[in-house]
Amino acid sequence: MLIETRAYARAGLLGNPSDGFFGKTIAISVRNFGASVTLYPSPELNVEPQAQDTNSFRSLHHLRDAVSTLGYHGGVPLLKAAIKKFAEYCETENIRLPNQNFSIRYRTSIPRQVGLSGSSAIIVATFRALMQFYGVEIPQPILPNLVLATETEELGITAGLQDRVIQCYEGCVYMDFDRSIMEKQGHGDYEPIDPRLLPKLYIAYNTDLGKQSGRVHSDVRARWLQGEPLVVDTLNAIADVARQGQEAIQQHNIDRLNELVNRNFDLRSTIFNISDRNRSLIEAARACGASASFTGSGGSIIGIYRDDAMLNRLFVELRKINARVIKPFVV
C-alpha cells in the first residue's frame, strides 16, 4: 500500500495578518506549487531525509545559502512534529491505532522563505497521509488547529490559523476568527468562495532566496496585547478589509477590490516594519498599474491586474528586481 498526499502553497488575499488577532481574512490555495508526502508500510518507522536535509556542503557559502532558504534542519523536523501531534490527538480522542509502522518522505516545489507557507503544506500533507494510513477522520475545522499546534507547540514557529485553514480547505475561503466565535466552538467560521468569482490575480515572489537575512521583526503582538490604540484599531481595520472584500467579490466589484488590496498593505505598513526589499516589490507592481499587498509576512505579493498588457509589464518590471510573476492556479 503506497499512499501519496499533497497540500498546496497559499496566498492571503485580504485581511492578512489579522488572523492572529481575532480578525478576518480571505485566502486562496495556489496549486502552482505543492508539497507531497509518500507513506508506505515498513518493519520500522522511518523518516527519510531528502537532498535538502543534507549535512554535507560544497563550501561555507553553500551552507550559508542552504540555511538561509531551508532553515537549519530542512523538512524532517516537520514530519516528526506532525507524527507526534497526530499520535497525541488520537490518544486524546481515545482512538486506538493499530500496531503498524511505516516509512515516510516528502517532496516540495514551494519556494521557501517567501511567504507562501511551504512548511505548513508539508505538515498538512503529512496529516493527510497518516489519516489515510490509519483510517482516522479528523474533522475539517479541527485539522488546521492541529497543524498550527504542530508548528507553534512543537517547533516554536510563530504563526496564525489562516494559512492552515486554506491549505486544509483549498480553493478560496473567507475566514472569521472573531474572539466570541473562537471561544465558543474552538475554531473560526470558514466560508468557501467560488474561485470563479475572483478577479485576474497575479503573485510575485523574490527569487533571490540566498539573501533572506533582512527578515521583518516587529513588536506588534506585544503592543496589541497591551491594548495600544493605534495597533488595535489598525488590525481591526485590516480585518474589515476582508469583510468588505467578501462583499466586493460577490458583487464582482473589481475597482473596489483593487482599492482594498492596496488598503490592506497601506494599513499594515503603519504598524509593521517593512524592509526595503519587500517594499520594492509593492512599488514596482503598483507602478505597472496593478494593486499589491503581501501574501503572508513578506517575500511575495499578490494583487489584481487589468489585462494581458499589464501582466506583461509586471513580468518585465519585477524581473528587474529578481522577482518571478505567476498567475495563481486556484480550483
TrEMBL record:
<dbReference type="InterPro" id="IPR036554">
    <property type="entry name" value="GHMP_kinase_C_sf"/>
</dbReference>
<dbReference type="InterPro" id="IPR006204">
    <property type="entry name" value="GHMP_kinase_N_dom"/>
</dbReference>
<dbReference type="InterPro" id="IPR013750">
    <property type="entry name" value="GHMP_kinase_C_dom"/>
</dbReference>
<dbReference type="GO" id="GO:0016301">
    <property type="term" value="F:kinase activity"/>
</dbReference>
<feature type="domain" description="GHMP kinase N-terminal">
    <location>
        <begin position="79"/>
        <end position="171"/>
    </location>
</feature>
<keyword id="KW-0547">Nucleotide-binding</keyword>
<keyword id="KW-0808">Transferase</keyword>
<dbReference type="InterPro" id="IPR020568">
    <property type="entry name" value="Ribosomal_Su5_D2-typ_SF"/>
</dbReference>
<dbReference type="Pfam" id="PF00288">
    <property type="entry name" value="GHMP_kinases_N"/>
</dbReference>
<feature type="domain" description="GHMP kinase C-terminal">
    <location>
        <begin position="247"/>
        <end position="310"/>
    </location>
</feature>
<keyword id="KW-0418">Kinase</keyword>
<dbReference type="Pfam" id="PF08544">
    <property type="entry name" value="GHMP_kinases_C"/>
</dbReference>
<dbReference type="GO" id="GO:0005524">
    <property type="term" value="F:ATP binding"/>
</dbReference>
<dbReference type="InterPro" id="IPR053034">
    <property type="entry name" value="Glucuronokinase-like"/>
</dbReference>
<keyword id="KW-0067">ATP-binding</keyword>
<protein>
    <submittedName>
        <fullName>GHMP kinase</fullName>
    </submittedName>
</protein>
